[in-house]
Amino acid sequence: MGIVVCIVMLLGLSVLQPSPWNSVKRVQHASKLVLFSSGSLLAFGLWNVIYGYSSINGFWMWASMISGSAMVLASYYVFSERHAEQNSEANTSGLRKVVVALLAISFLLYSTTLIQLNLGYSILR
């Protein structure tokens, strides 16, 4: 399930486009992709929070709750910005930047851990 959550995080990051190279002209995504991304972020973010709270202890409980919350907030931004102009205030808000940063850090943590697991290395406990 970690692979699916990691892929959904990457999909959310690609739709939110946090890179400075795309700030001049934002690429318009198909509306179905945006709705799929928003729904996936919401569903898997809620699942991540609920599963982390009820089934995991220690570091990974907090990691799943924080990453799940970031995914839920990212789904809100993806859904609410689907028709917004590129220069709107919603695209440059401080909370949006924090959500994108948390989503990127969570993606890096999950992907690094998945690679370590597949190579047989020890992971954080």
Features:
single chain, 125 residues, mainly alpha, 4 helices, 70% helix, 0% strand, globular
Describe this structure in words.
This protein is mainly α and 125 residues long. It is 70% helix and 0% strand. It contains four helices and no strands. Helix 1 runs parallel beside helix 3 and helix 3 crosses helix 4. The longest helix is centred in the C-terminal third of the chain and has 26 residues.
Summarize, please:
About 70% of the residues lie in helices and about 0% in strands. With about 120 residues, the chain is mostly helical.
Q: Could you report the average pLDDT, rounded to the nearest whole number?
A: 83
Distance between the termini: 18 Å
Question: How helix-rich are the residues, as a percent range?
Answer: over 70%
Count of alpha/pi helices = 4
Low-confidence stretches: none
Main beta sheet strand tally, sense and closure? none
From N to C, what is the helix and strand string?
HHHH
Q: How much of the polypeptide forms β-strand, as a percent range?
A: under 5%
**Rg over alpha carbons:** 15 Å
